[in-house]
Specification:
With 390 residues, this protein is an alpha/beta fold. Helix content is 42%, strand content 16%. The strands form 3 sheets. Strands 3-2-1-4-5-8-9 form a 7-stranded parallel sheet, with helices on both faces. It has a 6-stranded parallel sheet with strand order 12-11-10-13-14-15, sandwiched between helices. The longest helix is centred in the C-terminal third of the chain and has 20 residues.
Length: 390
């Protein structure tokens, strides 16, 4: 099968979409049929520019910054088009050529003008204004830019939704996202991740609660909530410290807040930590906190740390709750009181964190594997081709 995957974002860019597309392309391109012939001829089209002239060795082809003509030719020569994210040009062209096409949703672009399901500029969870028909609120929703830009963004949401209604399958990583999108022909295929070595947490550090955050330092990731919770725990004389792994545009403002609140001895910003060194930070974690306030359709950091055998506490976004498999390990999104309460539970009951770690490890190894993700996509491609042939 000749499979074309279009992903606006791809390596060397770093993010959840890039990770999933790379794992999927590599896994499919490595499959063989009887006699050893490749089962898939995979080509990835992307608008992400490479850092080097020579592409690293991959079992599939990568075409960067394709022209309109090249996009048209590549779509015309493939058997199935897979669009990672609701990108309009490849969707429009694939539908024009009447090609079998699937969309994998990595955001909320089909139901939210910002794609984040957040109300701007307040950065609070959106109640779903677009799908409820509250379109005045959608046009008002913007951090910056003119009303014209906001209006264009709103209009494009209708167009994206129309295109998604015409494709052969809409792939989502969580059933929760499928419920939000309310599109036809939805298929749930959870993301798969590369195996992570289990991390043995160090005990015996006294009674201190160590909280670790791993991710980009942007408003939607909710790091400010962690700082507020630490401030409250400090006021109550509870020993706690925080390690923040990652970089981003909010780092300076977060560091200023730490200084203002006198938390410098408890909160350490570690910046970028190489993959091989992250384990040293995580092994001293009492709990890994994922406090996102929106923009999450799966929860890569949640699943990654479950695979590492670490206890995870996350906001109760629908995608996070589904990945975790329950609500015991969540706190109300954006609610610092509830976050503080849950941290106190862990501090007062070390066995609770151990339980979360065991249950999460088992669930992740049963559900979020590369093999299951690849098999799920293969099934969708076969169903699409069979339905077209019929």
């Amino acid at each position: 099968m000749k499979l074309l995957i279009y992903s606006h974002f791809f390596r060397p860019s770093v993010g959840g979409v890039e990770t999933v597309v790379e794992l999927l392309a590599t896994g499919l391109a490595s499959l063989q049929i009887a006699g050893g012939a490749p089962a898939y001829e995979v080509t990835v089209l992307t608008n992400t520019t490479a850092n080097e002239r020579v592409e690293p060795s991959r079992p599939y082809r990568v075409v960067r910054n394709p022209t309109k003509g090249q996009l048209r030719e590549w779509i015309g020569s493939c058997d199935v088009v897979h669009v990672a994210g609701v990108a309009i040009p490849p969707l429009r062209e694939a539908l024009r050529q009447k090609k079998p096409v699937v969309v994998e949703h990595h955001g909320f672009q089909a139901i939210c003008p910002s794609g984040q399901l957040l109300k701007e500029p307040e950065d609070v969870p959106c109640p779903g204004h677009f799908m409820k028909g509250n379109h005045v609120e959608c046009v008002r929703c913007r951090k910056s830019g003119s009303r014209l830009v906001s209006l264009r963004r709103w209009l494009l949401t209708f167009y994206r939704r129309q295109l998604c209604g015409r494709v052969n399958a809409n792939i989502v990583p969580t059933g929760w996202l499928g419920e939000q999108l309310r599109l036809p022909r939805v298929k749930v295929v959870p993301h798969g991740l590369s195996p992570r070595a289990p991390i043995v947490r160090i005990s015996g550090r006294g009674n201190a609660l160590r909280v670790v955050f791993v991710g980009r330092l942007v408003t939607t990731k909710g790091v400010g909530l962690v700082l507020q919770a630490v401030r409250r725990l400090q006021t109550g004389n509870y020993p706690v410290d925080v390690r923040i792994v990652g970089t981003g545009p909010e780092r300076e403002s977060l560091e200023n807040r730490v200084k203002e609140w006198g938390l410098g001895s408890q909160v350490k910003f570690l910046g970028f930590v190489p993959e091989g060194e992250v384990g040293k930070v995580l092994m001293e974690a009492t709990v890994v906190v994922v406090p996102s306030i929106g923009g999450e359709v799966f929860g890569m950091v949640v699943a990654e740390n479950m695979l590492r055998g670490l206890p995870v506490l996350a906001s109760d976004l629908g995608a996070f709750a589904e990945v975790l498999g329950g609500s015991d390990q969540t706190f109300r999104t954006g609610d610092v009181d509830d976050l503080t309460r849950q941290l106190l539970r862990v501090a007062n009951d070390p066995a609770l964190a151990d339980h979360w770690a065991r249950v999460g490890y088992q669930r992740a190894h049963e559900t979020f594997t590369e093999q299951r993700m690849i098999e799920g996509h293969e099934k969708v491609y076969r169903e699409v081709l069979i339905s077209r042939a019929g």
